[in-house]
Amino acid sequence: MKFDMLVVGEGLAALTLLLNTPSTIKVGVVSRSKFDEPSSYWAQGGISAVYSVDDDFEKHTTDTLIAGDGLCNEATVRAIVTAGTSVLQWLIDMGVPFTRENEQIHLTREGGHSERRVAHVDDMTGRAIMQSLQAKAALLPNVTWIRQYEAVELISDGGRVTGLIAQSLADGDVSVFSAPNVVLATGGITGLYPYATSPHASKGEAIAMAWRAGANIENLEFVQFHPTAYQHNGQVISLITEAVRGEGGHLYNTAGERFMSQYSGQGELAPRDIVARAIYAEMARLRAPYVWLDISHQGEKFVQSHFPNLVELTRRHGCDLSTQPVPVSPAAHYTCGGIATDLHGRTSVAGLYAIGEVANCGLHGANRLASNSLLECVVMGRACAEAVSGSDALSGAGKKLTIRVPTIVETNLSLAALPELRALLWNHAGIVRSRDGLATGLRELARLGDGPCGLLPYGQALRARNIHDAAYLVLHSASLRKESRGGHFNTDFPDKAPAMPTIVTGVDRTVWRQAAVRAQVEDNVPA
Length: 527
Prior knowledge:
Layout: E1 5-8, H1 12-19, E2 27-31, E3 47-48, H2 57-68, H3 74-82, H4 84-93, E4 100-101, E5 104-105, E6 107-108, E7 118-119, H5 125-137, E8 143-147, E9 149-156, E10 161-168, E11 174-178, E12 182-184, H6 205-212, E13 217-218, E14 223-232, E15 235-239, H7 243-246, E16 250-252, H8 272-286, E17 291-294, H9 300-306, H10 308-316, E18 326-335, E19 338-340, E20 352-354, E21 359-360, H11 372-389, E22 399-404, E23 408-411, H12 418-428, H13 435-448, E24 454-457, H14 458-480, E25 503-504, H15 509-514, E26 520-526
Parallel strand pairs: 1-2, 1-12, 2-8, 12-20, 19-21
Antiparallel strand pairs: 3-7, 4-5, 6-7, 9-10, 10-11, 13-19, 13-25, 14-15, 14-18, 16-17, 17-18, 22-26, 23-24
Helix pairs in contact: 1-5, 1-11, 2-3, 6-14, 9-10, 12-13, 12-14, 13-14
């Protein structure tokens, strides 16, 4: 099948892109999803935007730069922050029912923010935004939805991307889709960790594919661990939104002591990386599986009105956020780095774009400021639509790239290694890292790639290659950074070095042709 643009994923960045793309552009959307799979759907807190007379763009910019710990692109930050007010108005116009108080949009405050600037829909903002946009995107006449497919490889002619290969999750068959423009909007790498706040978190597959197609990967060591994931029987049930602490929630260790003042003058409102490491330290010190988060002192009525979904969730699992402390611990939450892009989502490979969590446009730096991610999704979705609409390669030359793919290939990788990969990253590239730990992680990963060869269906073999390469990129990026900054803390390098990005250059395209994709490519085949 041939399109003008292929989009991989259907979260907030992708939907914004679709809703801002001219109807004359033929679009194919490839996704694994049922509607509630994208990480955007599970965002609890809200979307940050300057929307109060007490706030201004300079304050929001400063807060973002401080959280990013020296690695934000200041021009990018200013561009995205100053678009916030128009983004919020666009979402209101799209029918998003933001929570109001006295007829005004209610703004809450989250960690790292100096003002109340987080617009929300109770405590399930992502779901409300997604449902509003999904209803409108479903009516777009130029969009073909290719669901229950997983993209497994990008196709390149050596100069630009020309399409992608995807595997049907229903029957395992592999299909080729052609387009001169491919937009990756798949989410990040948090699914590579055993504890993650999204039930369907991506595992870095698109980042691995982009890297093999020649795209540069930037700052992938900066994985943000949400400090307060609700635990039940040792399993992560859901994150507990930052807004709970923003509205006065306190953290206690299992000895009943408030401890955040020992780690930050901002207390519970410190940036997420500081709070996550503080909780991790208290858990290690007391050999405890969790700490307590308590907002019950605000009163049952207050908590129920501000966090109705979380109250219901905790009650379903034998606890009650509105009347008692709940057990929480850190979990992988957000990928601050990713595929390097400009402010329109363009990568270092012609025709390849990346938007949302999969990308690193320079907004987040070493640590994301709470609720900036939904803002980024909308701003970058709109900007990418503008870039693709102005592309000089929309319809190409009316020719389709045909790839003959094998049915079965020989490989020493396996999807069955995912639990081992997850444990490896949690132990060696988790909240606290070390030089020896990262070296051990890379050795163990290499061992997984040196096992005996076996035969696998082609799509399954590529899926295994993707998670292996993504794990390598995280470990390799972390091993290159000889300092501690933002979401990356290395006990052997506790101090900061001069602020520099970590860049892993995309694989040379000649290597791409010789690697896991052993396919015969024929150019100039009529569409």
